[in-house]
Amino acid sequence: MNATKKGEASFSPEALRDKYRLEREKRLRADGSAQYVDFSGVYADFDKDPYVEPGFTRPAVREKTEVVIVGGGFGGMLAATRLRQAGVDSIRIVEKGGDFGGTWYWNRYPGAACDVESYIYMPLLEETGYIPTEKYAKATEIFAHCQRIGRQFDLYRAALFQTSVAGMDWDDDARRWIVTTDRGDRLAARFVIIAGGVLHKAKLPGIPGIETFKGHSFHTSRWDYAYTGGGPMGGLDRLADKRVGIIGTGATAVQAIPHLGASAKQLYVFQRTPSSIGARNNQPTDEAWVKTLRPGWQHERIVNFSAIVSGRPQEVDLVRDGWTYIFEDDGSARATTPEEAAQQRLLSDFRKMEEIRARVDALVKDPATAEALKPYYYQLCKRPCFHDEYLDTFNRPNVQLVDTEGKGVERITPTGVVVKGKEYPVDCLIYASGFEVSSEYTRRLGFDIRGRGGKSLRDSWAEGASTLHGMHSRGYPNLLMFSTTQSGWAINFVHILDEQAKHAAYIIEQCRERGIETIEATEQAQQQWWEVILGTLARGVGFGGPECTPGYYNNEGAAFGPREIRMAGYAGGTLEFIQILHDWRNSGDLAGLEVTRAAATPNM
Ligand code: NDP
């Protein structure tokens, strides 16, 4: 069968399905996620923070506090802000970086910008009175906004920067968490909120010979401007006489490569799987539009976007960009059966990916390079990218795409990178190889959590997670986790983070008001929540999936065992998950939480 739509070339869904399957099979590997290594051991230097002066010291802090928040990125800042708004003053924020920002502290690579519209992505715009300067703000502006939030909500006095949590132990006599850090701090907290981020533990490909490379190398989340020159806006003048290699072509590389291509003497882009590159169409903020905004505008816009990208068409599409286009008019709304709806969505996906491939042909002059840059998989198998200069960069004479045909780089030598037996000599090698997503939870956190009776969370979750709302886990009283495990998921992830922050602040506020000393999920509530998650997995249409090309959305294509399935998120869509949290709070009965009350007056 050939599917056609007015004005478009025809395509055969069967042929595309076969091609997608072949491309997937090329990329499957027995080692799955184990192909990556972290920054420990011989790679420890990769983890150094290039943005702070070396030699920072401070006296250790020993104190009682009401809430410790682990992480000073958007999640931690939103939690602290919502707590401050609820009147909770006694807060400590422990953050590895030298400032607030999380992702936007670490990711300062050239070209970094948000790929979800800044008016919905950057939090607390109405509260801070700030309007981003562009539809897709650059990293520097987003980082500055994090600092603005820190100042406005008086979060700096709560922060312990350049500090990593070393461990957390529940003291059942004191009814407190004892949080220790790598700077000798000892914080005795009634509550701990873990807002450790989702994409924060960088990974390196475990390519043979990687440790033998003698040139300069770094990961994109620790960009070395001292070596490259320039800054987040580009102008990498010290690369003018350098041969540079970059490994990876995901969302990060797509933003950095145009700047590397513009500055390096020679750039080799080592590709395993091409990204889909839609149009970006960034624009400066329209002052006339700003004048039309009324109170509540940001929340309305956030909800409108999340509805559309959860497959709920809206009367108006306020954001109107590449993301909403993916979900626009996929025909499923007119279908009369679920099977027909699924078929319509599939055809729409083929059609929109054909457009993505046609865009490559239109922009890349060399036909062989163009062919290699075309993604052959379903659109949501990998994070869709949007960029107006990336593809054109491959027309530069100093830029060469080295396509590994799905196999990845073969070997790294002291002087270069080997693909299909050929060595490409480089002075500098940049890893745009992403972050751990499906590895074990406490491994990504970097510390274990020992709850009631000293039971480690690593052990408790060895066969998979058990939670209520992805936030509470039995045996770990007064611990509130922000993660994707059995929790909500969103393309605009900050939407979920803010709802988690409001939820956690509500719970802590209620404990204070009602004289509750500890809260802990019941076994029954965890079981019921798991059944809810399973129900959504059965009907969910989401990212990744077993038929997808390997990547972090589908655990690198490895089969999902019982443990991995229990790490899954709520698959019924962003708004549905948020509604569940709203309804739970509105009921006011703290359902599913076992509570204990203080014998006398509540302490703190
Ligand atoms: P990704 O995990 O998306 O990309 C890693 C890249 O490294 C992939 O292209 C991968 O290929 C490649 N790779 C891994 N091993 C090898 C190897 N042995 N040989 C060759 N290539 C290899 O990481 P990113 O940092 O790009 O993005 C992570 C996420 O961060 C995004 O998905 C997005 O959610 C977020 N992000 C958001 C941005 C924004 O808002 N502006 C910007 C950047 C990132 P393969 O695909 O075959 O595995």
Automatic annotation (TrEMBL):
Report if keyword Cell cycle is assigned.
Answer: no
Q: Provide the cofactor list for this protein.
A: FAD
Q: Which UniProt keywords apply?
A: FAD, Flavoprotein, Monooxygenase, NADP, Oxidoreductase
Tell me the leader sequence span. none
Give the molecular function GO annotations: monooxygenase activity
Recorded superkingdom: Bacteria
Do you know which InterPro entries this protein is assigned to? FAD-binding_Monooxygenases (IPR050775), FAD/NAD-bd_sf (IPR036188), FAD/NAD-binding_dom (IPR023753)
Q: Where is the FAD/NAD(P)-binding domain?
A: 66-274
Instruction: Tell me its family.
Output: Belongs to the FAD-binding monooxygenase family.
- What is the designated name of this protein? Pyridine nucleotide-disulphide oxidoreductase
Which species expresses this protein natively?
Answer: Nannocystis exedens
Q: Upper taxonomic classification of the species?
A: Bacteria, Pseudomonadati, Myxococcota, Polyangia, Nannocystales
